[in-house]
Amino acid sequence: MPLSREAIVEGLRRIVGPDAVVTDEKVLVESSVDNFRKLQNIFDVHTMPVPAAVALPADTAQVARVLTWANDNGVNVIPRTGATATEGGLESAVPDSVILDGSAMNEIVKVDPYNMQATCQCGVPLQALEDRAREHGLTTGHSPQSKPVAHMGGLVATRSIGQFSTLYGGIEDMVVGLEAVFPGGEVCRIKNVPRRAAGPDIRHIVIGNEGALCFITEVTVKLFPYFPENNVFLGWTLKDMGLGFEVLRDVMVNGYKPSVARVYDPGDAGIHFSHFAAPDDCVLLFMAEGAAGIAKATADGIQAIVDQHPECTQVPSEYIETWFNDLCWDASKIIAEDERIRQTRNVNRTTEISADWSSINEIYQAAKQRIIDEIPDITMMGGHSSHSYINGTNMYFNYFFNVVGVGPEEETEKYYLPIIGIICEETLKRGGSIVHHHGMGKARAPWVKDEYGSSYFMLETLKRSFDPNGVMNKGTIIPL
Amino acid sequence: MTALRIAVGFKVTPDYEALRPADWARAATGHSAHGEAVRYVRRVFNVFDEAALELALRLRDARAERGLETSLVAFSVAGREADPFLVTLQALGYEGARVEPDADLDFAPAATAELVAAATRRLGGEVLLLGSRCGPGDTGLVPFLAAEALGRPNLPGVTAVEPAADRLRVTFSAGDRALRATITPPCVLAVGNALVSMLRVPTLKDRLAVRDSVITTLTPEDLGVDVPAALSREPSALVGLETIDRSRAGVVVGGATPGEEARALYEEHLRARLERI
Amino acid sequence: MAGGTPRIALVLDATGAAAERHARALGGFLRDGLRLSPEHPADAVTHLFYAEESARERLLALAPTRPVRLVRAPPHRPDLMAAALAAFAAGGGADLFVFGGPLGAELAARLAARSGGGVLTGVLDAVAAAGALSCRRHVSSHHLIGRFELRARPWCVTLDADWLDVGFEPPAEHAVQTSAELHEDDFSAPRLCDDVEVLEPPATSDLEAAQFLVVAGRGAAGRAGVERIAAAADRMGAAFGVTRPVVMNAWAAPDRQIGVSGTRTAPAVCIVAGASGAPAFLWGVERAGFIVAVETDEHSAIASEADAVVLDDAVAVLEALADIVAREHP
Fold this sequence. Notes:
By secondary structure, chain A is of the alpha+beta class. Chain A has 18 helices and 19 strands. In chain A, the strands form four sheets. In chain A, strands 12, 13, 14, 15, 16, 17, 18 and 19 form an eight-stranded antiparallel sheet that branches. In chain A, strands 5-6-10-8-9 form a five-stranded antiparallel sheet.
């Protein structure tokens, strides 16, 4: 017998206190979605089931008590901190869910420059941790575009990646230890050690779980030295995207680790670089950073590699540096973008995938052409590669369309989901992954079995074992 | 009723918001340094010009609903940096044109206005729509001076334009007050803080359809304007630039108790300011 | 009169709204913003354009200089006003025209164009010497200040919006030098437009319009704390807003929210109590003239974005401050 909304609210109040339970209608409606329903948010249209409450636990003990109570009573819990998710991970897929919001747990517990580690609670904004690291002349190395707004708990839960990942790695390379709470109330602390081989690496059960297995309450991440004065920017224009991928591969295979390595196709380059790139130009760009010797050797190495390709025309590095300095989200930009969407009904969406070097260009070409041919009202279709590895890279499809003849609530059905479908199909066909870093959320959950193949058994077993009653973020990763 | 020809003058500017304090410090060392400092940042439509471009499209659409024909031409006093924007405008139904000034008109509103007026005469445009002001000068003078040169009335702070038979019903502002009036072309409408301020987006198919369209490129000589002479007549001259220090002092107010701190805060910082309010 | 003291005409367009603010701006600028080189008292006359006869005496009392030239003009007729001023300038009436009022920029531009003089808008301050008028004004979207010179007279300028908030008392008495009325047929100016309708201004929220604002953040530590800060704000005559976490915790109503998802404000004085200064919130108060942060964490973002910082409990400090302000400014 499911609990009534009133009983849910009462149950939460008894655990976290009445002041920490929010039942204001406007707040609850806002909390029913994330940026996946961005267009609906902007037009104030709401179609998802409204949660019963938002609860803000003060500490790990309260988190454990809330999860135990939810588990005992079959209440769906959606863990949340910074609320910057883009794939529906924070959507309440079923009525009367509880948003368990960790933003009140916002203490930076320890900054340890000698051991190059920092520990913080889940509700600490990444920007706050980064600012604190900078006071010691250090950096977290993690810089997703959402840095000004995202919190540490969510960044770990989604296996996020930042702009400098080619040097520093993704969040999975940065997490040292953590504390997480499971639906049965188990509080598990994974200690901070540089490496161990004491069985499987259980951190990876937590990192990327998207709130479907547990609630992350604390994380410890590595710190890195910070040498912004040594940054070197390099950029070229070229006509052939395939060549762009080849150059990225050369750079990675030869062992260079620039912090930024990207190639933009003409459509995407037109958005950022039309002041120096022709309409049919791709743009290849790099940033080298680190200790002086390393930054110089990296930049010199990349220069030598690209110099072997006369089809690449170098551009003044100031263009790349200026563009780069303005990359992160900030309050004014978000407001301006929302207003632009409201007025023009022109929507920007993204879908990012990964694949090996042999497949990436084919995936890009095939998906792009199919979208242009099959989807109406497209105003831009392009993308860029922004995270490379020795054995492959990602493709960040970036596309815009006018929403014509339907209301905002039908945008996903008419445009967004069909586009995601095309990209997933073309990627899976060639052995790539349908999600590079935004998380599966609920948006791509329908493809989870195709994505996992026979290893789905392992994912499913984790879910059944850790969340036997299915109370953790229903619909995320594994569809309803 | 005859077709109405609307000319929209626009400018493409550096995205000033993408620059940082260090860039502005460099820009402030002089006029040419200013040009250098903004050289590498992306270009965007001036916000008021963008609103003018969208308002003109909406006026065309509203007139079409009443069976009235309209032709649109968009032009910029600019070099090649305006081309990507003109291509987009062509895809939206504008004819595109550019006047290459061959001189730096950044802080020269009178010379700019002369070219704008001459271009309007040459390209035709009983209605000249343009943004009320534009960087870097931000004087807001070009629409008034262009209207003066064309011998036309001008309405400032325009936020909406609707057809009214063969005239136009215009909502505009004169300082603090909003007004609505009927005006007969030829006229100049300077667009202010319109609620409709963003340009619609053409589809890939729209772009394909105008792929072979040509951008008309004119020189000042084509328009009969002697730019060096106009610059020498410019009514104001830029003699220097300064940065603006926006950092806040962060002065810590002392006191052993909240009461003492409040008293110190009031006496040292708030009293005079509150008296002025 | 080249080389001598510049004669100054303050042109007040009182045919529209907010005449008092514009009159104060002109007076304040004459007193504080304009320097004559070499120094000596300004020789200034106000040209006051007004539309309604019934408003004449009230508007005359606002004139920023003792000598006044009154001109009655039909409303919404900058063409007639510009023509009248051009005639006055042609007769060598003034060297410097400072324009205030809604039609100021248009009048300045058209007068300069017709008389061959220099024109500049949004002036922050100016120095009038024999050879030139040197002015400072914002450029590059308010990122820089430019220094300009106007050489050819008459110099025609309008003022930066900051001058609208200056304190200035007009002279107790005025001497009307001339009184004129403009008619359609006086000048060969074409009719500008007709069927003019004055529109209702949109309502601004109390937060947007507030000159003195108190904002409570999460540091108020609960609904009770937020309510106490709100009461303190009320006693001080300040508007009251909150940050997003306060709304999300349901400690205050969403219409009080300040920042990206709420209201953007521009008060002269803003006290931020118990908010750490997230960027999305700071955007909502960054235009404030003077920001005070009351915070317990000296590392918080707000501490470096405020003009003055009190490192103590928000509720206690605000209540103590309210006691003082309520007493000193009843």
